[in-house]
Amino acid sequence: MGNYKIRKHNKPISIAIKGYLDKSGGKVTASRNEIEWRFNALDWKYQKQILFAFLQSGMSDRKWAYKKLYTFWDDCFIPFLKDIWELYHERELSWLIIQFFPSDCLKKKMKELSEGRNYYFLYQRLREDPDFVLDKTRLNEADLLSVMAETGEIITDDDIRDMFYIIIYKLCKGVYKFGAYRVMPDDKEPPLLPMFESSIVRLMIGVIAGKLERYELVEELRKWLVSVSSDLWKEYGYSYNYGSNEERHEILSNHCMKYIPQEYKDVWDTFDNDNQQQFLEYLKERNKIHLQNADSDEIVRKVLRDLADEPSICKSK
pLDDT grade, residue 313 (50/70/90)? Predict the structure, then answer.
């Protein structure tokens, strides 16, 4: 017979909840661990009690509850979460509010909820509302591309290239942030530069592949990322790792800027990097040129894809 570790029998969850609520009883940490371990398998009445208790506790417990609420949502939490929002204005709670609160509430709190990329997710919730007017200057290029796809605009591969290189340009200029972390070499293949692993680049590639299904273009852009990365390692080796964080940022930005096509830099260097309207007007004019030069087959394919996505209005008799 094998040796087996005998586990203690589960106590009633009410005991763990009581231990968690009694902040002076010395059992808060053990009770919290027990609750978190057993939470998903509990009856809803206990889950609700636990969620309310965690929401009234410290920041880490509140954030644990926010994550659970995506799966165990109930409108009974709305009044309580409104009060918590007024107290803390936590970013993690803003995501929950945007996801689940009624649209009227979102419109009233638009200004305080719409910081950063939250604006794009508010657009996703409110885009059918006649009172909502999309401000494209508040979108990054990846989200702008998503919106263009969702609204049925004809998007050429050259439009996508323009937006991709704008993202790289803005990373180099510090408009979009990235971590210039130290890189661990891999014998099999050179790693991508840290700036290419940033969330904005990953998001852009994800939109091109997942939403637009331009797989050949994705492969082209990935090859560019690999090539630029390989050239930096050839130039610096992994001595790149030994500089300060600021020095690594400068090395990456200066290196990548050299690989952005000059025709882009000649124009963008005249822009205010924080003035998104200038970039939008540039993209609009470029789109006109791309459509004029586009292979007619590309436009036909776009129309056919749109028709395929529409429910059939004519059925054979």
Answer: very low
Contact assessment for residue 195 and residue 252, using Cβ atoms and an 8 Å cutoff: yes
Contact 163, 144 (CB under 8 A): yes
The CA distance from 307 to 317, in Å, is: 20
Q: How far apart are CA 118 and CA 65, in angstroms?
A: 20
Q: What is the tens place of the pLDDT at every residue in 95-124?
A: 999 999 999 999 999 999 999 999 999 999
List CB contacts of 136: < 8 A, sequence separation 6 or more. 144, 147, 276, 280
- Let me know if 236 is exposed, middle or buried by CB neighbors in 10 A (0-12, 13-18, 19+): middle
pLDDT digits (tens, 9 = 90+) for 185-220: 776 778 999 999 999 999 999 999 999 999 999 999
Q: Which of 226, 230, 222, 250 is CA-nearest to residue 164?
A: 222
Residue 253: closest CA among 305, 180, 202, 159: 180
